[in-house]
Design a protein that fits this description.
FAD/NAD(P)-binding domain, Flavocytochrome C3, Chain A, domain 1, homodimer
């Protein structure tokens, strides 16, 4: 039985709880967060068990961009000057109202060391100009942030197989390296097990976890700590409806194992949740240069965002502010430059003139024409006073035919992953609804509420957090008394 | 000690829990929801205690509009034809994605009976044409709903002192009547006590509540049920930051006792929460006719909503979609008709022409001029193809001077109340994070997640829910075995 009643069962004390096996640290879930935690716990001398319902190989982190900065080795090799202060300032300004300063500070302060740690593990980064492992993955060069903080690139892309493909899978490479490292430090081979409930004792201390393997139930004691690294809840429709209903029409980016179990299990033993309505929605048009040069409009033919914004910020605006309806308007030049690689299904309308396009889209005249007139007039002067698109992407759209590419939810791929989750301290300890830590329970990665919450405006923050707080939890749990 | 540890204390069984006093049903909080619950529980023969931290008289519900329909006595007296089906259809269409059909159905099915119940309690409603107790309090006459469901008014305003003033306090009148009724049915006089924690037993059944009175702690057993009616959390800045951060700049509509205690206490004994990021934000410009006739624009001088929308929908759009920035543009005619009663502080700019106004507001030319040109051109023809404002409010803005009235968060009063809360069944029973009910625990009013969640587009839904689910909880709790 799950939930508080389940917990109650064990409250008569440890003496009555039967344990099938005992470990020091148990990690549930082994994406990049779980693998980082398992590695550090094992290297700290703890006896470690990793449980993973998807099988370790399958549950690969879906990205490879890792947001790091403040002066990493790669930044230095690329002659990029960055400081922890600048990185902190950028994150405080771009992640949403009332940001979690404590977690952001830890994230920033550990960043250079985390880069060095990855390098020490054999993760390659390239500073070759034609194969650079560093990019502007966030909103650094976008208004208003570029005027607040000098832009520097912080998106680190490991130079491993697959990391440069559209659907990057290179995160799996690092994850495997970490799990191998954990095993060579003595961790047990990850068990293909489905965690069912957390056991919290009479004294409030978390004691272990009950899981099923091939349908049989086993209880595993975690003497020093239980680390949840089970991901978000984008694949649990009921939870999305309960907490983030406006994203119901979007496509989950996450892997299917991201069913929110860790969040619910933690709540069952008293954990608080934070900003559960937050998600990162992305409209990842696969010719980004076209998106930046085009004109994004809503159902009324109005612009609503600077088109050079990060895909996640564009998706966020489409879903949260534009009721899911948007078009990217491009002209022949942009189509010839690469946008024409769009699949025909993505084209909403095409016409010789903007007026005709407006009619085809059902936008009342002259709304779209006015939008383009104003845009073109200013673009000719190298200006965008309405949305402040950077000069390098500003060019009048003047060469017909004009094409409207669908950027609407349901008519194009607007994907999302959840950002809200278990409320944790900067030490990755889980907080209860009274603000007290739940002893020996940790949450890392997207099972925990993120730093970029509600605004995921910088790619790589998820994996960056996975490494930062995964490591912290692994080391912290291993240090606890048994 | 609060939280799960607090609960644990009682888990050795009832024998070890000392109770200072025993009751059948305890109601915490006595706004309209708590008063309705207490009344029904007492009338059902239960021994009832009401706890209220604000003092019963102080904690008056802030509104008086009660959303009821489906053919109430007042609707009939006004020759308004309404059906439960039409009301259901409207609520399903206007309250947000994936609406809570079960709760909405119960709300609709009980509506006529709830009206009759209020009348039987002596609550007066007037069908006098010059003092009508019935109004369109929602979005019934607004696009797109007016085209989906034939509009009928469902906002019932009791004809009691204060109910027609701007800051209506008439809800207090009904509440007092209910508490008097509860007392005459045997309920104890409401105690001015601060509830501290819920006691849930080893068997999972809620047993009672611990509260402090003048700093001393007392335990009250609730043999048949504990009903939480403690309101939302708009006055708890930490909770707003954790769950609904985009509303941090808005002013709480709720009374100061709405600190979210009930939500946190319920979570501590395993309750699930739902849609905690939702809030009803309102820009209640105090000359509504001017708002409907004016033109609302955002920071880019673009229209973004039909100006005849309900104030709550306007506020919602300003906060959630327009980054908190908006202006209402009016001309001299509208000012003369009543908008000029605005306090001078509310005026952002005033100019002889729209072009000059645009300049004063810092909106890049000719964005605002284009917006007004298009609006005026269509308004002259009695059309609004962009946002579908109703014909009766459409009139070109042509008489200078033109005035921009501030509708921005921080520069005008954009108020909010929270809508997310404890997840409940249509029977007002509290659900845990596994979807099971927590025996003998009820939540009613805004401590529970609302029907209009995330969209509060119809005034009176809160009080309507308070009555509906307050009554259900009171009757349901009284029926439980001791």
């Amino acid at each position: 039985m799950l939930g508080i009643l389940g917990t109650s069962e064990s409250l008569a004390g440890e003496a009555r709880q039967h344990w099938d096996r005992e470990f020091d640290v148990i990690v549930v879930g082994c994406g990049l967060a779980g693998a980082s935690a398992a590695y550090e716990a094992a290297r700290s001398g703890a006896v470690v068990l990793v449980l993973d319902s998807g099988g370790a190989a399958a549950n690969a982190s879906h990205g490879t961009i890792i947001y790091m900065g403040g002066g990493t080795g790669l930044q230095k090799a690329c002659q990029i000057e960055d400081t922890p202060e600048a990185m902190m300032k950028y994150l405080l300004a771009s992640t949403g109202p009332d940001p979690d300063t404590g977690r952001i500070r830890v994230f920033v302060e550990r960043s250079v060391a985390n880069y060095d740690w990855l390098v020490s593990l054999g993760v390659p980064f390239s500073n070759a100009p034609d194969n650079l492992s560093l990019e502007y993955s966030g909103s650094e060069k976008v208004y208003p942030w570029r005027e607040m903080i000098r832009p520097v690139p912080r998106g680190h892309i490991p130079d491993v197989p697959g990391s440069k493909s559209l659907y990057r899978g290179g995160g799996a490479w690092i994850q495997k390296r970490l799990l191998d490292g954990a095993r060579s430090a003595g961790a047990a081979t990850p068990l293909n097990a489905v965690a069912r409930r957390i056991v919290r004792g009479h004294d409030g201390v978390v004691q272990g976890v009950v899981a099923t393997i091939d349908g049989r139930s086993f209880s595993f004691r975690a003497r020093r700590g239980l680390i949840l690294a089970t991901g978000g809840f984008a694949h649990n429709k009921e939870m999305v409806s309960e907490h983030a209903p406006i994203y119901l029409g979007c496509t989950p980016t996450d892997l299917k194992w991201n069913d929110g179990w860790g969040i619910r299990a933690a709540q069952s033993v008293g954990a608080a949740v934070r900003r559960m309505g937050s998600a990162g929605a992305g409209w990842y048009f696969y010719h980004p240069a076209s998106r930046r040069q085009g004109v994004l409009v809503n159902a009324q033919g109005q612009r609503f965002i600077s088109e050079d914004s990060y895909s996640g910020r564009v998706g966020d605006a489409i879903v949260r502010e534009q009721h899911g309806i948007a078009y990217l308007i491009v002209d022949r030049t942009i189509m010839d430059d690469g946008a024409s690689t769009v699949i025909p299904d993505a084209i909403a309308a095409q016409a010789a003139s903007i007026a005709d396009l407006e009619g085809l889209l059902g936008i009342p005249a002259p709304a779209l024409q006015q939008t383009l007139d104003t845009y073109n007039t200013y673009a000719t002067k190298g200006q965008d006073p309405l949305f402040h698109k950077a000069l390098e992407h500003l060019r009048p759209l003047s060469q017909g035919p004009f094409t409207a590419i669908n950027a609407s939810v349901g008519k194009s791929r607007v994907s999302f992953f959840t950002l809200g989750g278990v409320h944790t301290t900067p030490g990755a300890e889980v907080l209860d609804t009274e603000g007290k830590t739940i002893p020996k329970l940790y949450a890392v990665g997207r099972v925990s509420a993120g730093i970029p919450c509600p605004y995921y405006y910088s790619s790589g923050l998820n994996l960056g957090e996975c490494i930062t707080f995964g490591r912290i939890a692994g080391i912290g749990a291993a240090r606890n008394r048994t």
